[in-house]
Each structure stands twice: as C-alpha cells, then as structure tokens.
Amino acid sequence: MYIRGIRGATVVESNTKEAILSETKALLKRILEDNKIEAENIATIFFSVTNDLNAAFPATAAREMGFTRTPMLCFNEIDVPGSLRQCIRILVQVNSEKSQREMKSIYLKEATILRPDHAENISTINQAT
Description:
There is one protein chain. This protein has helices at about 15-35, 60-65, 125-129; strands spanning about 1-10, 40-50, 70-75, 85-95, 105. By secondary structure, it is α/β, with parallel strands linked by helices. The chain has a single domain (about 1-129), classed as CATH 3.30.1330.40. It has a five-stranded mixed β-sheet, covered by helices on one side. Strand 2, helix 2 (about 60-65) and strand 3 form a beta-alpha-beta unit. It is globular and about 40 Å long.
C-alpha cells in the first residue's frame, strides 16, 4: 500500500459552529464516498481554515462522524489579499493501492474556483476555455 493525498475545499456562509461543522461533514463525506475510502485506511486528516473562521475546529466534525482515533490537525491558511474567504480546506492522507491519479479531489460551492479542474458542475463553457 501507498499513502495518497486527497484534497478538498468548501466555503461556509457564516462563522458559526453549526456552519463550520455541517460543511466540514458534507465535504469529508463526499471525499470518502467518491474515493470509496474506508475509515481504517485513513492515515491523517489536515484541515485548514481562512482567518475569518474561528467558531469551531473542523476536526470536531470528523470526531462527530466517528473518527476518534485518526490523527488530525487544524490550522490557518496564509492570509493572501484577495483570496477566497470563509474557506475550509481538507487534505486526507489514505493508505491505498490506487494510484494518485485515481484519487478524486472534491471542491464544492465557491471553492470550485480554487481548482476548477476538480470541481463538480463545471459548465461546458468553462471546459472549452
């Protein structure tokens, strides 16, 4: 087995515990489902948030989902002027026989601008340019 990384990002509408935990759970669930990842194959999960999000630790959402033995770390993104606000990013490291190319990164909501090549619901106009 090899360790592989899967990225994802989403945004929240407000800096509240409920919004942060809800969006983190939705994103993490999609990452795991779309990549067919079993909990015991997760090595670590890293969460980052923009500096305008401080109402909750995103790792709390994963703990509430049952990841009580998975090593996790939360930290702040670099505060680059003009960058996406209210953004939660995730890096899940998994043990897998799949190649890195087979891993599906998930970008939701306004976070699709971060990696349009991985975003869902990209219009055909965007794909052509």
